[in-house]
From TrEMBL:
Annotated Pfam families: MFS_1
Subcellular localization, as worded in the UniProt entry: Cell membrane; Membrane
GO MF entry, a single one: nitrate transmembrane transporter activity
Similarity comment: family membership: Belongs to the major facilitator superfamily. Nitrate/nitrite porter (TC 2.A.1.8) family.
One annotated GO biological process: nitrate assimilation
Originating species: Arsenicibacter rosenii
One cellular component term from this protein's GO annotations in UniProt: plasma membrane
Protein's UniProt keywords contain Cell membrane: yes
Residue ranges of domain Major facilitator superfamily (MFS) profile in the record: 24-424
Chain segments annotated as transmembrane: 27-46, 58-78, 90-108, 114-133, 154-178, 184-203, 242-266, 272-291, 312-331, 337-360, 367-388, 400-420
Record-given protein name: Nitrate/nitrite transporter
Major location category of this protein: membrane
Membrane topology per record: Multi-pass membrane protein
This protein's record includes keyword Phosphoprotein: no
Length: 433
């Protein structure tokens, strides 16, 4: 590449921050990491919160649904903003606004107040769309799947780390003399402050594209502005967008659900302590360190040889294996076997996350933010639907996991029969490129 300062990079140089592309790469996954930390910081503390606020199983389920429901709409809107306003401003504003309910959730003293804060915190989940958009415009199509998967995976890692760290942070605050009912509230202030600081850093050290910010490009008459209009409608008319919407609901949607319920499940079903349950749940999330990246890397290699058709079949196979793994997890009767089954289906699930977003940038380059937003929203729709199973008083957690496993396998079958290759249309149409 002759000029890497204003073009998409063709190589992911992990240990470099010299170029705007790699600087943006590292800041966007780091921001997403702490967004996950704030988004799911309450999950490993739910047993304490349950006792403190006197929550029922149904109320915990409602809070779980609230934490992902707001993200559905937010992801679609954020995707549109990325296309028109630019990822730099969009991410900076989102980080600043989301820090408020994360720091303020400790003010909740009732179920209703807690539910409203969980709903507001859920908006931070839209950060994923910006992360994927920003890496997509910074890297060449040859490695965009890998770049998206690594950034997304390392960001998702925050969901695992928070399950490990928040119980320890909570214990440390209790050790300072605070009662549990106060300690969980104080613990949430820390991720909120980090997000507020990151909003400033992101605005200062990133750019919308390798060539510059949207505003700068619009002022430069020699370089066309990448801003686009009508992208949400164009993305919504493409059936491939909605198949990927379903696929992401079946992988990332279940990941989000498991992040929310895992610690409580291990604690109540197998009698694990709060710290142990958090560590086990954290192991699930910690696999994002490599598993999602593996999915993106394999998808790029398959795509180079077999095109989008190959990527689609890879995604279908991963979803099928994920579904089988979840069914096995639901049938385990011991903690050891449950952990083994969890690690198995987690690998396929996270690889499917990476494989999905190895396809997204090729659906429609001119409406990439909108496509990314709709598909990302699918992840949260999947989480909302799964959440209804876990809040039911008549369906056990074991039965819920069994139903989810079957549903994921069915989605895999739908993906298998879908053609992701672009179809020729009129030149004036917004098409896949």
């Amino acid at each position: 590449m002759k000029n890497s300062t204003n073009k998409s990079l063709e190589k992911l140089t992990i240990f470099s921050v010299n170029s705007v592309q790699m600087r943006t790469f590292h800041l966007t996954w780091l921001a997403f990491f702490f967004c996950f930390f704030g988004w799911f910081g309450l999950a490993p503390l739910m047993k304490v919160i349950k006792d403190d606020l006197g929550l029922t199983k149904a109320q915990i389920g409602n809070a779980m649904i609230a934490s992902v429901a707001a993200t559905v709409v937010a992801r679609m809107l954020i995707g549109r903003l990325c296309d028109s306003w630019g990822p730099r401003k969009t991410y900076s504003l989102l980080l600043a606004l989301a820090s408020i309910p994360i720091m303020g959730v400790g003010l909740a003293n009732s179920y209703e107040g807690f539910l409203l804060f969980r709903l507001a915190i859920g908006v931070i989940g839209a950060s994923f769309v910006i992360t994927q958009y920003h890496t997509s415009v910074m890297f060449d199509k040859k490695i965009v799947g890998t770049a998206n998967a690594v950034a997304g995976g390392w960001g998702n890692l925050g969901g695992g780390v928070t399950n490990m760290v928040m119980p320890l942070l909570f214990a440390g605050i209790v050790g300072l003399g605070y009662v549990p009912g106060t300690a969980w509230r104080l613990a949430m202030v820390i991720p909120g402050v980090v997000l507020l600081l990151l909003s400033v850093v992101y605005y200062r050290f990133t750019k919308d594209t390798p060539a510059g910010n949207f505003d700068e490009l619009a002022e430069n008459q020699t370089i066309p502005s990448p801003k686009a209009k009508g992208t949400l409608a164009k993305a919504a008319k493409d059936p491939r967008t909605w198949v990927l919407f379903l696929a992401y609901g079946a992988c990332f949607g279940i990941e989000v659900t498991f992040d929310n319920v895992a610690a409580l499940y291990f604690s109540e079903r197998f009698g694990a302590t709060l710290t142990t349950a958090g560590l086990l749940a954290g192991t699930f999330g910690f696999m994002n360190l490599f598993a999602r990246a593996v999915g993106g890397i394999v998808a790029d290699k398959v795509g180079a040889r077999n095109g989008l058709r190959g990527k689609g079949l890879l995604l279908a196979g991963l979803l099928l294996l994920e579904g089988i793994g979840i069914v096995l997890f639901a049938q385990t009767g011991s903690l050891t076997m449950a952990v083994i089954a969890m690690l198995g289906f987690a690998m396929f699930l996270k690889m499917a996350n990476g494989a999905t977003y190895a396809i997204v940038p090729f659906v429609n380059r001119k409406a990439m933010g909108a496509v990314s937003g709709i598909v990302g929203a699918g992840g949260n729709v999947g989480a909302v639907l799964a959440g209804f199973l876990f809040k039911s008083e008549t369906i056990s957690y074991t039965e819920a996991f069994l139903m989810i496993g079957v549903a994921v396998a069915v989605v895999g079958a739908v993906v298998a029969v879908t053609r992701f290759e672009p179809v020729p249309v009129a030149e004036n149409e917004l098409v896949a490129v």
